[in-house]
Fold DUF4139 domain-containing protein.
Amino acid sequence: MRATGLLALCLAGPALGQTVVTSPAPERVGVTVYRDQSRGNARPQRQWLNGYALISETRTIAIPAGDTELRFEGVASGIVPQSAIVGGIPEGLLERNRDALLLSAGSLVDRALGQRVSLRRTDRATGKVTNEEAVVRTGSDGGVVLQTAAGVEALRCTGLAETLIYDRVPAGLSARPTLSVRVRARQPLTATVTLSYLATGFDWQADYVAMLSPDERTLQLQAWLTLASTDETSFVGATTQAVAGRVNRERTDVPPVSAPPLRLECWPDETTDDVPEEEGGDGYGIPPPPPPPAPPPPPPMAMRSEIVVTGSRMTAERERLGDLQLYRIPEPVTVAAKAQKQVGLIDQPAVRIEMIYRMRLMASDLDAEQAGQLILRSRNRDEEGLGLPLPSGNVVLFRQGAERPMLIGEGAMRDVAVGEKVELAVAQSTGVRARMAGGKGGRQTLTVTNDRMVATRVEVELFKDDDEEIDGAKLTARDGKLLWIITVPANGSVSLNYAIRRR
């Protein structure tokens, strides 16, 4: 027994003798955001981001001689502790810890369990304030029970305004997410410490806005880089980058930061039969809430026309990073907690395109009809007005109307390398349609109609079974597909007659 006590004293000695030094915030910070590869072209779910970020911080810290606990406050709440790299400490680290329990009303009560606190009561009628000692007997989940000189009672169930006063912050609670490390120095020094780590709860997305020209031969293409964070920490004045491309990363589960709320419950002495029911209430003596106010009237047209939105455009600079693409924001920005930010990514004023309408039909269908899908095609090269990597994202297509731009449709851009084909499916047309009609002896008639005011390029992709052949039709084979490619005149139609022969 004596030996066990001596061992415990020896183990506790260094921890009791060490100094605690806190760095409240970084002097410089960099944020590099990596996309969630699993979501494809889908938009990020704002409440559940599965991308991640590489955070790089620089802090100047005065380290005393001996053993010291360095506390890095203000790190990302989604920090992956095992990924942290601390540099700039001459003699290295002894250990590191992530403080996952944050300061909150609930965590204060939980850490004060079984301890004495001060219970302050205020009489709302007279304003009289009284203080008395109390012992916390239960935690924050499901009601706080206190023991006072008068007996046992639940917090805030006496009808008086009550609050708990603590003489100190319990050990182990942090006001902000914190990473702590233990170091040992032979002599005092001032070190420029770098801290780099991965953090979950980030993502980014490319959002494209395209304006179709009146002649339907070019479009103006702009893209915005949308950064999103669900982290509890804001990074002010951060050097910010986004990485496009596939990065192999194994799944890592990060324990969430805990900041439990304070849940209070009261247990009345009376039964439900003793409580009178008030008319117009909900059966518990509580009147229904008032109806919400009516929405304000819309502004008059004259006022609307005077509303102008202005702003300076900042465009991300693109760099090659091996097989990846790095988009660097040229100025420091704030990556705010639980927020989104947009900066310019691409601005190509004249991208040459081919606009077609596409249908996909079974060649042997006896009766089928389908509306054409509007497809924009180009090639990612300088001659077409592009020639730069295009990250995946959503595309919104507009066309200039008589008074204002009109929405035509939306689509999705995949990751497109330089030199690759670009194809965007953005809208379904009701004016360009294909109709299939079957006759005797396997005879088929395919008719495409166009009610637009201009001639329209149409591609019909025909599918057939393995034992079928299409006779009497001049079709184009492309990428293993059979295509009927035609130009349908304005307000006109074109028909194709063929026969289905089975082998």
